[in-house]
Write a structure and sequence with these properties.
Blueprint lengths: L1 E4 L8 H15 L8 H9 L3 E6 L2 E11 L4 E9 L8 H16 L4 E6 L2 H10 L2 E3 L8 H5 L7 H6 L8 E5 L15 H15 L6
Parallel strand pairs: 4-5
Antiparallel strand pairs: 1-2, 2-3, 3-4, 5-7, 6-7
Helix pairs in contact: 1-2
Bound molecules: coenzyme A.
The site of coenzyme A (COA) has 19 residues, from strand 4, helix 3 and helix 4.
């Protein structure tokens, strides 16, 4: 398995990346920002993505988005193909994209929003902290990405203050030691998620 910084030679994987993201969201029954192959190809082209390949088989992907004039970057679209899950691949991809973000945008705050416990765990280990949405970028283009998520009405109702996703932030100015020892409290996270769901989702959609 190799994990490399993506380039134009990986354009042929744009379709499978989109399909795998969309399929996984369907299976999880969660909201997801929709990506087109063209959108993914732009990220492959500008050297802001990493791709994991098993020979020439697609195994995983993640990309960097730049927001608010490089004040913020997000590591988005993390996906591991179902054939390669539970082997620590997402962890390796996350680490690669985090390192790439730090080297290309050393002053940027790195953030993400997620409903996934796996992502939350990995972010913690890299030194991210959970924050309110007010700590994240105000760049409207970022928040526009949420429009294709099925929970977008919640974000609108709360005037962008909260949603089912949790915001997480790595601030390079705060010397958080990413010791690998930081652990998310899974029980508390699941409880918080279920509280948010009962607050925000109508009985019909739950
Ligand atoms: C989430 C996903 C990226 C994990 O990929 P993976 O390669 O199987 O993950 P890893 O094996 O590297 O595991 C990383 C950590 O997450 C945990 N984890 C993995 N899948 C998990 C799940 N479904 N629920 C809770 N924790 C999970 C692992 O136990 C591990 O934690 P640990 O270090 O405490 O043991 C993969 O399942 C996927 O692509 N899912 C669909 C897309 C998605 O959910 N993307 C995230 C967007 S929010």
């Amino acid at each position: 398995m190799k994990i490399v910084i993506a380039n134009d030679s990986h354009f042929k994987y744009a379709e499978i990346i989109c399909d795998t993201i969309a399929e996984s969201a369907k299976v999880r029954g969660t909201g997801i920002a929709k990506r087109t192959p063209e959108y993914i190809q732009k990220r492959l082209h500008n050297g802001n993505a990493v791709i994991a390949l098993d020979g020439d088989k697609f195994a995983g992907f993640c990309y960097i988005e730049v927001w608010g004039h490089e004040k913020f970057v997000a590591n988005s679209g993390l996906i591991v193909h179902p054939d390669y899950r539970n082997q620590g691949l997402a962890k390796r991809i996350k680490k690669e994209i985090f390192n790439l973000s730090r080297s290309k945008f050393p002053d940027a705050k790195i953030f993400g929003i997620t409903t996934g416990l796996a992502v939350m765990k990995m972010n913690y280990e890299l030194g991210y902290k959970p924050v309110t949405f007010s700590e994240l970028t105000t760049d409207p283009e970022f928040w526009k990405g949420c429009q294709t998520c099925k929970n977008f009405d919640i974000l609108t109702r709360t005037e962008q203050k909260m949603c089912l996703c949790t915001g997480m932030l790595y601030d390079p100015a705060i010397k958080t030691k990413a010791s690998g020892m930081e652990k998310v409290n899974s029980k508390a996270f699941k409880r918080l998620k279920s509280i948010k769901e009962s607050l925000f989702l109508s009985k019909k959609t739950k």
